[in-house]
Design goal:
about 270 residues; alpha/beta; two-stranded antiparallel ribbon; 8 helices; 8 strands
């Protein structure tokens, strides 16, 4: 199993524990705010496998997240998983396992913005093929309902990486994440397949560069991981890496919350001065 230190930390984690200073928070706001981590990516990119790894490491549970086989039209459920807050009546953070798409178009953008803004939350149905009412700007939303950090999953063996198809589809959403000051971590999955194919260091470097073009994340927040499968041995080092990713995401989320609180306060001052 993964190292007990980070595992224990995540089990007991409460929002605000890392940054521990939110000077522009409204009265009582942090008591009602729980970090919300959005998992985005195309169908088959490994989002649900990642959730299942976290479930296994932190709660000893096996494969509760639904592994999706299709991103077709229809009714889908936004799955929400609560972690942390051990010994309290409030979870420390949520993972939102969003349903993947086969391609990223206007409908996907609209759905993802609705999730980012908190218009679609865990357990709610999303009817694909029908528009969702949401804000394009993300303004005037409750910070406690928004997604605070995004893990963007990219399948390392997907040929669309090299062709540039991903980049053109992702440009709009990357811009929206930047406008909202929402940090993105890039998770390149199926690393075991890359290793079996004899992927060289240079090829891995190229894959990471191509993936970061899509997501806009920093170099030190780009990760190669192996997908967890119940019937296969999963190295403890891989478990440790997944938990490290979660802690990095929580840190980024807390800074996003603080930044958006400060931005909100400055905006209010500007409005009063006019």
């Amino acid at each position: 199993m993964a190292g007990l230190g980070i595992s224990s930390f995540l089990k007991s984690y409460q929002t605000g524990q890392i940054v521990n200073n939110f000077p522009d928070a409204r009265e009582g706001e942090m008591q009602h705010t729980v970090v919300r981590v959005g998992l985005f990516g195309l169908t088959g990119s490994g989002k649900s496998s990642f959730v299942n790894t976290v479930l296994r490491c932190l709660e000893g549970k096996e494969e509760l997240a639904m592994v999706q086989s299709s991103g077709a039209e229809g009714t889908v459920v936004l799955e929400e998983f609560a972690f942390g807050g051990e010994g309290t009546d409030k979870p420390g953070f949520f993972l939102f396992d969003t349903r993947g798409f086969d391609v990223l178009g206007d409908e996907a953008h609209n759905e993802m913005l609705a999730i980012l803004n908190g218009d679609k939350r865990g357990g709610q149905f999303i009817r694909r093929g029908k528009p969702i009412k949401t804000s394009m700007s993300g303004q005037d939303y409750k910070l406690s309902r928004e997604v605070h950090v995004v893990l963007w999953f990219v399948k390392g063996t997907d040929p669309r990486l090299e062709s540039g198809t991903y980049q053109s589809h992702m440009a709009f959403l990357k811009m929206q994440l930047h406008k909202r000051a929402v940090k993105t971590l890039t998770i390149i999955t199926h690393d075991d397949e890359l290793q079996r194919k004899g992927c060289t260091d240079q090829q891995r470097h190229n894959i990471a560069e191509q993936a970061r073009e899509i997501t806009g994340s920093d170099q030190d927040q780009t990760y190669f991981i192996t997908n967890y499968m119940r019937e296969k041995h999963f190295p403890s080092g891989q478990e440790q890496q997944v938990l490290d990713i979660i802690k990095t995401a929580l840190t980024a989320a807390e800074y996003t919350i603080r930044m958006r609180q400060s931005k909100r306060k400055m905006q209010k001052r500007k409005e009063k001065s006019h």
